[in-house]
Amino acid sequence: MAKERSELPGDNTERVSKLKRHLVGSGRLTEDQFLQAEDYALTRKISIEEAVLFLNLIDYTGLGQSLAKIYGKPYRPLLADPPLDSAKSVVPLKFAQRWTIFPVAYDSEKNFLILAVGDPTDQQLIGHLQTIFPPPFRLAFTVASTAEIVRAVRVHYEGEVYTPATELEVPQDFTILSNQEETREKLTLEDQARTKRKILLLEPDRDRASALRTILRGEGYPNVAWVLSPEETVKALKRGPSDVLLVNGRFFQPRGSWLRDICQEIEPPYIAYYHLTPLLLGQEYSYHQMSEALIGLAAFLVTMRLQGNQGELQEILTRARYCKLLALRLELRPGQVDGAVLAAWLSAEGLGRELAGHIVTPYRLEEIVEPAPGAQKKQRVEAGILSMVKAYQVLKKNEPEAARDINQVRRRLSGQCASPQIEAVLEAFLHLIQDEEFLRRVDQAGGHILVVDPTQAQASGMVLRLSNDGYEVEVVTDAREAMDILSTSPVDVVVSEVNLPGTDGLTFCRAVRQNAATTQIPFLFLTSEEGERLAAECLETGADDFLKKPVDLEMLSLKIQRLLAMKAPQKATRGVSGSLTEMSSTDFIQSLSTGEKDVEINLEHRGQEGKIYMQQGQIIHADTESLSGEKAFYRLMTWEEGAFQILPCSHFPTRTIHAPTMSLLIEGARLVDEARGV
Question: In this structure, are residues 30 and 52 in contact, taking their beta carbons and an 8 Å threshold?
């Protein structure tokens, strides 16, 4: 690690060592703060000076004064006052940029030129400058950080606006923790405990972090360290424990993948979330938090009630997903989207209907779940969405062949259209169904699964789960029928019960392994049979894995993904592609998000290329040839022509985007409208 730390971009070992000794030795920075800056410099490929400035550990003046002590040269601030025009004429822009120098002062009568440099002991640099400015020029040098010199050149030569940073001033009586206590002259035990508590602040914006640290110091919490990403959080907590991890709840959601990633590395301390917008507006909770909690509560209660009926539970899950996607596709307001989703959950028989009558919400759920008789002409669009989705589910369950023909679906569902508004809902839904069918091929595992089990059916919970995971699932009841399918069509995985009618599962597995055409197909046993050696016997016959019933569906899904990845890594290139004029990026990102997919999206537009990465349905990174992070994502959202390719993904780049997917899409849509001149 010591070798790595000495290879910071733009730095050399001696320079970094000198700076560290002075900053830590003088008390300007702690050892942990300097280590944090080194980690950040390595991660972002910047110099250590840029890192301490960006992390707000020190300002330009403080860093310049430290360099002055190190090199024994004076320091003069460069940003506040512009140099004389005569000095800029002697040191033109291209010289200042090429050699990273800045003209502090120039006396034309005496030809006396004072230059600010980053390292006045760099003899090679000084030699170049003496060649560029030969006698009668007389040179003198001051010292400043290279970051300040570069910024001064941009400000005073190129016209960049510079606003001096000011320390946030907080009134003495301001508090974000409690407004009940009077200011006390002496520290109580509670105050002493407060000053000793170490807080790690996870905030992606430097200015917000600076303001929050100032407020927390005013509240008696001086030990506040700042990190701007989950990766840096792990490094900071490995260096030393903190009492509280204080997290920006807008960018890092409580159940987000960022938290799972952290927990795989370390055991985090107590986590507290803050939301600045409701705080500034005088609200205790944001609308998004409240709606999410309400939908989560309804989903939890309905899921608990339907635990013994996996088929009905899966039907409600699918209904809620379709309602959300359709409401988003119709560009309804957030309140309408949430009302449609909540109504979908509460449309479950029994508990759902009961809850709908007792929960007080701003959505008027009774008008969505059970519209009054004769209200068809004034039917709310949310009610039309729910009715349309339910009718489609009935058709798909009772007449699966008809549900595969989009024209038949249109004819069967047209009876739901009581107004032109609902006709628009139908057309949007048909488009959504086609897009969903198209995107079904996008899955990290994917493929054709053959289930051989007399106790399973196409509507069973296990089959529905695998279907929703993106697999084509075929169910047969005995080994003979299974062998017929294996001999006539490609199968990616066999999932079989041990106890089969006619030929038992063990004999069936041996037959699969002895056939040259099927010997490589992954084979997984599920059974409710008991026996000490049963699992061993299953594996001895050639099975790849063995699970006891009732099976954990999450575990089954993960095992199938692993088996497919081991069998054919070349399938990682499998995916779907299409034209952005036929399917917009907003449409397929919404579908991928609700399906919690792990994908890499490749986009092409007029010779330009870009990528978007989604992990568990959340956008985590984007890049183009010149941009990265959110800026790249918003640029890609403006591409309305070109091609896309969606590939399953298991290895992701470092996360650079933390905003919720819906917030990103809303902002992206606004930028598209601006680009169109709307």
Answer: no
pLDDT of residue 593 exceeding 80, the answer is: yes
* Per-residue pLDDT at 604: 94
Residues 455-505: tens digit of each pLDDT: 887 667 788 778 767 678 889 989 988 998 898 888 889 999 988 888 888
Residue 472's closest CA among 481, 460, 463, 482? 463
Residue 550, preceding bond cis, omega within 30 degrees?
yes
CB-based contacts of 29, cutoff 8 Å, min separation 6: 23, 37, 52, 57, 58
Per-residue confidence (pLDDT) for residue 183, from 0 to 100: 41
The DSSP result for 129-157, as a single string, is HHHHS-TT-EEEEEE--HHHHHHHHHHHT
Q: What is the pLDDT of residues 229-255, one digit of tens each?
A: 888 899 889 888 898 899 988 778 776
Residue 293 contacts residue 339 (beta carbons within 8 Å): no
Signed CA dihedral, 496, 502, 506, 509: sign only: negative
CA distance 643 to 652: 22
The pair of three-digit structure tokens given for residue 567, joined into one six-digit string: 């069998």
H/E segment holding residue 567:
helix 553-567
Query: Any alpha helices (H) in 351-419, and if so which ranges?
Result: 351-356, 366-369, 381-398, 400-403, 406-413
Nearest CA-CA partner of 77 in 4, 6, 17, 148: 148
Least reliable range by pLDDT among 289-303, 378-392, 516-530: 289-303
More confidently predicted of 189 and 71: 71
DSSP string, 296-331: HHHHHHHHHHTTT-HHHHHHHHHHHHHHHHHHHHTT
Residue with tokens 């790849």: 544
Closest CA to 270 of 293, 236, 239, 247: 247
Distance CA(467)–CA(213), nearest Å, equals 49
Q: How far apart are CA 18 and CA 158, in angstroms?
A: 32
Q: Is residue 112 within 8 Å of residue 138, measured between CB atoms?
A: yes
The C-alpha atoms of residue 39 and residue 34 are separated, in whole angstroms, by 9
269 burial via Cβ count (<10 Å: 0-12, 13-18, 19+)? middle
Could you report the per-residue pLDDT of 428-454, keeping only the tens digit for each? Answer: 888 888 877 777 666 544 678 999 998
Helical ranges in 165-286 per DSSP H: 189-196, 206-218, 230-239, 257-265, 276-280
What domains can be seen in the chain, in order of their start residue?
2-156 (3.30.300.160), 190-280 (3.40.50.2300), 301-438 (no CATH), 448-571 (3.40.50.2300), 575-676 (no CATH)
Mean pLDDT of the chain: 81
Cα–Cα dist 346/355, whole Å:
7
pLDDT computed for residue 567 by the predictor: 64
Task: Round to whole Å and give the CA distance between 678 and 670.
Answer: 9
Rounded CA-CA distance 446/467 in Å is 10
> Quick one: which of 486, 489, 537, 533 has its CA closest to 512?
486
CA-wise closest residue to 133 among 111, 104, 108: 111
Any alpha helices (H) in 399-455, and if so which ranges? 400-403, 406-413, 420-439
Q: Which of 489, 494, 444 is nearest to 470 (CA)?
A: 444
User: Which has the minimum average pLDDT: 27-31, 284-288, 650-654?
Assistant: 284-288
Which of helix, strand or coil describes residue 220?
Answer: coil
